[in-house]
Amino acid sequence: MLPRFIHAGRRLSRFVGDERGNFAVTAALLMIPLMSAIGGAVDLAYAVDVQNTLQQASDSAALAAAREETDPAALAEAAFESNLPERLANATMQLTINDDGSVTVDASAIYKPAFMSLVGVSSLNIAVSSRAISSMTPDQTVTTTKTETVTTHATACMLARASNGGNALLVNSPARVDSKNCEIHVRSGSNDAFMFNTGATFNASKFCIKGTATARGTTNAAIETDCDAAPDTIAGSLPTPNDSFCTFNNFTPANSEYVVLTPGTYCGWSNFNGKPKITLTPGLYIIKNGGWNFNDGIEVTGAGVSIYLTGNGATINMNGKISWDISAPTSGTYEGILYFQNPSLPAGNFIFNGLNGQHLQGLIYLPTQNIQFKSKSKSGTRDAISVVANTIIIDGEAVWNFGPAAGKTVPGSETTTTKTVTTTETIPGERGATRLMD
Fold first, then answer.
1. Which helix (H) or strand (E) element contains residue 321?
2. Which residues, 6 or more positions from 348, have their beta carbon under 8 angstroms from its beta carbon?
3. What is the largest CA-CA distance in the chain?
4. pLDDT tens string 182-194
5. What confidence tens digit (pLDDT) does each residue in 65-78 have?
């Protein structure tokens, strides 16, 4: 019988030489990297699928934005979201409008792998980009040539409306009248409708007399007779003031060095004496069934003033050395109207007097009145006066300046000019089909 240690040595020798146990251990050790490789391949396949899906969404967003001009960002966002499955809810996009008219969409998403996390890879950042552009038709330049007819009117700063019966416009020696910046029109068809006596001077841009004229004085323009004189275009255009209530009755102010008058309806006769300085505050003054009497030495001033005559005998009397300096409103209902009347005001005489001069700016519209600019009365060189009356007389040593007044005016001679106008218009191109650029 062999010793026990000999039997033990043999068993150990057989165990060491047995290769079956070594293979099992090796296989177990190799299983971990093998499974990681297979899982990683699966994760990468899913990642590629995510990238393709993200690319399709990005392409759709770029194409949508490229064909939209008003709000491309909103349309791109809608197209992007509609092409994403729920598993890519964390995807984001950014739109860029490029200088060449194209758009770029940059999109990104985070994919969390199932198997690669075993080896420490917890997420994958996936990013794609799309660029698209819309084809554009080129801009077109269109040139148009057309002929335009332009009609303009001069200003008639003096219109005598009387249709017949003696001198509708009379200028006596040695009166001097300057109307070089406007025209003189007389609608009377009578003989000597315009009488212009020796020693008088009358300058105007044009004289248009419907009837005949006797011109003995000096003028700078030819006098046209049998001329189509301007009509009264002011008639019916002025609102009628409300004069039913008398603000003042037979008004006479207390003796004072200074008197201030306020707008309102002055009924009866108002008398101003004692050489005061009278100020007319801005507004409408209605003289009804009477008038204003201004006596020697009075000074009257007022800006933004309109004076309306209505009723029987409505007038303004200026006696002696009166200084009169008023101007019409520059805005409002009666803009540019200095004097005007009720259309039914009876015919009468309205006299501009005052040796110290009158400075007037505005339209004097008294179509039923016979206006007389008295001897030695005068206006200022800065005046802008237009007059419409039944007849007009300018006497003796009167010196008056007439000119286009702001606001209401009477159109004079018509001038028609024809000109060729060339215009160039650029018509922008239009968007066409969209395409991906890269």
1. none
2. 313, 315, 368, 369, 370
3. 183
4. 999 999 999 999 9
5. 888 778 888 989 99
